[in-house]
Write a structure and sequence with these properties.
It is a single chain. The protein has nine helices and eleven strands. The chain is an alpha/beta fold. The strands form two sheets. Strands 3, 4, 5, 6, 7, 8, 9, 10 and 11 form a nine-stranded mixed beta sheet that branches.
């Protein structure tokens, strides 16, 4: 079985279509199957041991598991979602991985009192936002017939509501990462610019610098305006967008880090 290294530390890509999820190594929790772009988004969060991290749209928990592994099961990851059925898919993955620092956290809305108890306490928050999924068109070409302008408007409003809720959770000095699997500026750059107008206290950090320091090997064209912007035909991933902000501590003089890689 041939393989090559991915631009993400610790990731490999196998040739062909091996039945990985039927292998003994998979059953033993030695690895997870995940697009390299998703792994880059988890790496962009920069979760560290002992931190309190919130995956606000955790779904079945692929990125949650990557965050937990980066923390070596020290600290706590809250895997939040409004869908109990999606979170239930996370539980067997947690058992298989051996991660002990993840707390599945079902919420009934963004105003759930359980979520409010975490306000201002998170060292890092990941918003892997609901989106059109146009970044997966190479694998799901029928998507172009399943979404229309009204769907995009609905998702845009939902993304903004989630970002507003996420901002309340970040502690001073903490990090917020907004991500989509989308090709559309309306879900990506436009949403980042909207958030920065609403929350000028959050400072954008250069994704290229963060990921390079973490050991990722990506070309300059994988970044745009200081954000991660992977494309299938250039980088071998689904299309992913990711922007990272830091909420400075009171009295700090931290300034924005301009993106110079795209």
């Amino acid at each position: 079985m041939l393989f090559r290294s991915e631009p993400v530390p610790g990731a490999i890509q196998l040739a062909g279509h091996p039945a990985l999820e039927r292998s003994a190594a998979f059953a033993d929790g030695a690895f997870e199957v995940q697009d390299a772009g998703s792994q880059l988004l988890a790496l962009l969060v920069g979760a560290r041991r002992g931190q309190k991290v919130i995956d606000l749209c955790a779904g079945a928990g692929g990125k949650t598991l990557a965050l937990a592994a980066a923390m070596n099961s020290l600290g706590q990851v809250f895997a939040c979602d409004v869908s109990i059925s999606r979170l239930q898919r996370l539980r067997p993955r947690l058992t298989r991985s051996g991660a002990t620092n993840v707390q599945p956290f079902a919420i009934d809305s963004l105003a759930d009192p359980k979520l409010e108890r975490l306000a201002g306490r998170a060292d890092a928050v990941l918003v892997d936002a609901p989106c059109t999924g146009t970044g997966t068109l190479r694998r799901n070409p029928d998507l172009k017939w399943r979404f229309g302008p009204d769907d995009l408007l609905r998702l845009r409003d939902e993304q903004q509501a989630i970002l507003r809720a996420a901002a309340r959770l970040v502690t001073p000095g903490g990090v917020l990462v907004y991500a989509t699997c989308s090709l559309l500026a309306e879900e990506n750059e436009h949403q980042a610019e909207w958030f920065e107008r609403l929350h000028p206290e959050f400072v954008r950090e250069d994704a290229a610098g963060v990921l390079t320091a973490a050991g990722a090997r990506l070309p300059a064209d994988a970044f745009r305006g200081g954000a991660l912007a992977c494309l299938p035909h250039r980088h071998g991933t689904d299309a992913f967008f990711g922007v990272r902000w830091r909420r400075p501590k009171p009295g700090s003089k931290q300034g924005a880090v301009a993106g110079t890689s795209g």
